[in-house]
Amino acid sequence: QVRLVESGGDSVQSGGSLRLSCRLTGYRQRAYLMAWFRQSPGMEREGLAAIDSDGDSSLVDSVKGRFTISLDKGSDTIFLDMHNLQPEDTAMYYCAADLQGIHPHWRIREPRAEALFDYWGQGTQVTISS
């Protein structure tokens, strides 16, 4: 059974940093695309970054320079390192996996990119106070 297990959400002050983790389990194929999304109350889900099993990645423009995505291939775990966090970064952050279509990582930048992903984690809350 495929599962995505997220961790790392927390409450921090403006200007702080956090690292989110997401491990993919129950999947035995070699190729995948994984990504991070976030959603604030009343807002649409927003794609942030995606990385494939080769380690190639894309970030959306709004988080470039502050967020980075990385992969530990040995454990099928992705990370989202977030720096200089601001109150507008407050959201539920979700990990997602594309295990069937294996779309290119740059498609995270497209509107409604969430439609490309088959599996979702439970979400981890990030709260930034000013």
Relative strand content: over 45%
The quaternary structure here is single chain
The main sheet comes to: 7 strands, mixed
Sequence of secondary-structure elements: EEEEEEEEEEE
Distance, first to last CA: 40 Å
Number of strands: 11
**Tally of separate helices:** 0
Helix-strand category: mainly beta
Shape: globular
Mean pLDDT: 96
- Indicate the radius of gyration in whole angstroms: 14 Å
Low-confidence stretches: none
Name the helicity range: under 10%
Kindly describe this structure:
With 130 residues, this protein is mostly beta strands. Helix content is 0%, strand content 47%. It contains no helices and 11 strands. The protein has strands at 3-7, 11-13, 18-25, 33-39, 46-52, 57-59, 67-72, 77-82, 91-98, 119-120, 124-129. The protein is globular, with a radius of gyration of 14 Å. The mean pLDDT is 96.
What are the SSEs and their pairings?
Elements: E1 3-7, E2 11-13, E3 18-25, E4 33-39, E5 46-52, E6 57-59, E7 67-72, E8 77-82, E9 91-98, E10 119-120, E11 124-129
Parallel strand pairs: 2-11
Antiparallel strand pairs: 1-3, 3-8, 4-5, 4-9, 5-6, 7-8, 9-10, 9-11
In short:
The protein is mainly beta and 130 residues long.
Looking at this protein, list some descriptive labels.
single chain, 130 residues, mainly beta, seven-stranded mixed beta sheet, four-stranded antiparallel beta sheet, globular
